[in-house]
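Think of the structure tokens as a kind of shorthand, similar to the way a musician reads notation: each symbol stands for something richer, in this case the local conformation of the backbone. In the example below we present two proteins back to back. Begin with the first one, reading the sequence and then the tokens, and try to describe in your own words what changes along the chain.
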Amino acid sequence: MTETDSRENGERQGIQSVEMAMRVLLALETGGGALSLSAIAQASGMQPSKVHRYLVSLGRIGLTSQDPASGLYDFGAAMRRMGAESLRRTNEVAVASGHAMQLRDRTGHSVNLAVWGDRGPIVVSWAYGTRPLPLTVRVGATLPLLTSSVGQVFLAHLPESLTDEVLGGELRGKEAEWTSERLAATRAQVREEGHVVTHSGVIPGIVSVAAPVFAANDPLPLAVSVVLPESLATAEHLAEVTGELHDTVAAASHELGYLS
């Protein structure tokens, strides 16, 4: 065996050791709480004696800890610090925008991403599709709460204390149309179905489907919407687009550390 082969084998062995340690950490993650040695061994598919050696090493650097009273293992202080720092560094808009672009490519329709601002939902990203639309949306535009699909996503998922001021302004003169019962029913429907569909809500002849993206370190969701011409929004195609949207927001939320 040459020196190069020996060095490469050593590097592979070192990487394998890291992967084995990650199996122990992933077992703790999926366990949802402190676990016994036998439970970690079963979840990781490793022998208890081997798992114990990894736990000793991981414990020395603070990635795991053991409760002296119960003997159960859990994440250590260093792991908690690393997790918090990782979440702090995550750019939710960049992650969600990447998934939104993929959604545009899969469906061919225009896709936008919005965040909550002081005066309502703000468009922070707009990717035009291959189907022409009779509108131009600029980044920074504010969308209405009541009539846009994106707005209704925020209406349903944000605390009312955040939306009340914006909602109050939109309700002036529309109290008879948007009763408290209708608002409550709208919120409940959006939460139950996981998405909103509006027909000519903001622009005549336009259908918009929106759904929320959640992040583990941010109580405020983002909203992704697909925009398509009414002429293309058959029941079958709308169901297909909605399915793609659900897959997109689920993948983005997962990457952002959200556990549904």
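Once you have a description of the first chain, move to the second and do the same.
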Amino acid sequence: MAIRVLLVDDQPLLRTGFRMILEAEPDLAVVGEAGDGLQALDQVRALQPDVVLMDIRMPRMDGVEATRQITGPDRNGPAKVLVLTTFDLDEYVVEALRAGASGFLLKDAPAHELVQAIRVVAGGEAMLAPSITRRLLDKYAGHLPSGEEPLPDTLHTLTDREVEVLKLVARGLSNAEIAADLFVSETTVKTHVGHVLTKLGLRDRVQAAVYAYESGLVRPGSQ
């Protein structure tokens, strides 16, 4: 079945361009469009998309709040959010990731990257530019713990190996890179990542990276 995509952007011309790109792909289907966050919420409820391409800065309701409501505890459907931004390092992107977005992409990214990003997010991998996610968190390190605070109790539910894997995820390593670093198989890494997400109540790798920074487990600039 085709991946159902909802386009959310306050610029109709951009939505048209995205639609043309996506509808050329046999496994993608654009099921609707919205010009702001409030319209996006209505469309998500009505259309049940798999992936929402979400602009950040929009009138009435911005992309951060819309993301929070779409992916929050009262969510109504399977939609994952892929944030679109004009700016490489944008504080709003950090907030969108904290709100539950599965990743982000620059609006001027090549068409093939947009298509692949949608497929990755729809598949639940959420490995979209984790290294850029780290750069964002590094840039806004002033909002993060200094490392002097005690680690949250939830971290103590992880095994030593799971903590190790979480640190590597936060550094932006892929499963293959983590496997090579720890001298284990990719399947083993996938299992560890799955356990980390389940124990910490996180949706995907991007949220895991954010958690690792916000908890103080990983500090900006650390290796």
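Compare your description with these statements about the second chain. The mean pLDDT is 83.
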